[in-house]
């Protein structure tokens, strides 16, 4: 059975239809890449899956672990195991990184009906995860993303993912704004989290990221629909030929 | 005669009634002088510049009598949560039974109005001095004209008080007016932290017209933290006036959460050089509350610094006012002044009026000010929700973080965390189910 099953998904933003019939099946442990030109609906897809207000599903279904996602609020989806790594992580003034992680972690435990975690135990757990991503204690003591560089913000997203251990991670343009060193660090962090129980949906404009995080399947999204699907060789083909083939009007 | 009726000032009847309570010749004279000055100064109206955002119509349309009861039960859940010696005033009068007078150490003395020594009467006269007459303080004169007690606190020079002192002013009763009056005299080189909690008994609706005067001796360090948590439906007009001498440090913070209409005016006169002065505050308003914070910082001498950070959160139809004036005299070279006022509006109908004012007569100074008004951004809320935190908790976390940024200015850590818990309580009580 698929972990995520999207059928004929239509969605509007501010009254404009952006997604026009998406079909996508992601099995457990699979890594799927969705590529496409700017304005194709890639980020909209990620927000629709994460449950952002203002992104309205008008037709179709999204089943996650057999459950209908559409009726769940964003926090419920997160606690069910959906994680969105933001393209532009938000600065959260006044909320300390460690506190933020603990609140999120405990929210999930409460959702699952389990007791909250001991503060010291949690600190050790986060530190071990942060080490892999080369994140210092100091970064965890600061307000979330405030004053962080682009690379630090993306690393912080991956740290949150490592701590919250989602079943499905959606990485929205995680490579944007990263230099080669930062890209490598972030990719290593993501690869560390690959497991047979964790699926990923990597949304990207460029093939570059896929050199580091190798996908099982690649899809081309244009005009709100998946136009072509294939293996990782499809990404290389797109890199060579560009999106020109898909830039005309939708078929 | 009809004309005189029209010109009659609010609360004049109460001044007459208060005459019967006078404690001796000095007190009667004080009251008379204050009453005369009150009449000369006149009541603040819509054309009074320093009151233009705060109308007192709701106050003057009510009927108030002088308080006559001076006992109450301390509303423990309203005051600043701190374990330390207390001085309790009920309806403006020192209540010795509720106060921990015996716990006070020798370096700290408390005197009430009946026992004042001559030198302790000087601060009352200060407000009538010619040099101060430019200050527009009608409600302070009203306070002086009707007061039935005053508490004078003296900290011996050179003594460092380890534990803070908590002054609790309780309002108890309906339709009453009272005038809490505190005078704090910190001797040269002394150190003390004073907390004022202004609270009311549940269901009481009153008018508290409070005045606190502070004198900071050379190189003294005074922390002064005020919680205005008067009962719903009450009025609080408070003046804090600090005279600060050479090398002294004054750390002031006001947390306003209570009352129907409140004004907290802080006037700091930096008489000495090398003074460090912080006038900070936070306010949280809901329903139809009106919360006014007005500050005046006067740099009179060279090389002093002042810092001002105010942050507020306003919901429903609440209205906030921030007026911050910094005056730098020609002699006050090398002045360093900073002022910031930020407000977050949680509803379309909430309002903030912000008026910064710099008046600088020295040429070698550094003064900056800024003000922002914002809303809680959807981007931020979604970010937290996407990590599993429900919308309500996300809002509370973000608003809490916003306001704690100002509370972090408080220098004393224990007091900082107790102000923090007052804010958290407010958020729990006011932001549920929205």
Explain what this protein looks like in three dimensions.
- The complex is a heterodimer of chains A (251) and B (434).
- Chain A is α/β, with parallel strands linked by helices and 251 residues long.
- Helices cover 37% and strands 26% of the residues of chain A.
- In chain A, the strands form two sheets. In chain A, strands 6-7-8-3-9-10 form a six-stranded mixed β-sheet, sandwiched between helices. A four-stranded antiparallel β-sheet of chain A has the order 2-1-4-5.
- In chain A, helix 6 packs parallel to helix 7.
- Chain A is globular, with a radius of gyration of 18 Å.
- By secondary structure, chain B is α/β, with parallel strands linked by helices.
- Chain B has one domain (2-376).
- In chain B, the strands form two sheets. In chain B, strands 1, 4, 5, 7, 8, 10, 12, 14, 16, 18 and 20 form an eleven-stranded mixed β-sheet that branches.
- In chain B, helix 7 (378-385) packs across helix 8 (391-407).
- The radius of gyration of chain B is 21 Å and the shape is globular.
- Chains A and B meet through helix 2 and helix 3 of A and helix 7 and helix 8 of B.
Features:
heterodimer; A: 251 residues; alpha/beta; Rossmann fold; four-stranded antiparallel beta sheet; 9 helices; 37% helix; globular; B: 434 residues; eleven-stranded mixed beta sheet; ten-stranded mixed beta sheet; 22% helix; disordered N terminus
> Which chain pair has the greatest contact?
A-B, 28 and 22 residues
Number of domains of chain A: 1
Give the helix/strand class of chain A: alpha/beta
Please state the oligomeric state of the protein chains shown: heterodimer
The total of beta strands of chain A comes to 10
Q: What is the total tally of β strands of chain B? A: 21
**Rg for CA atoms of chain B:** 21 Å
The H-level CATH homologous superfamily of chain A, spelled out, is P-loop containing nucleotide triphosphate hydrolases
Helix residue percentage of chain B: 10-25%
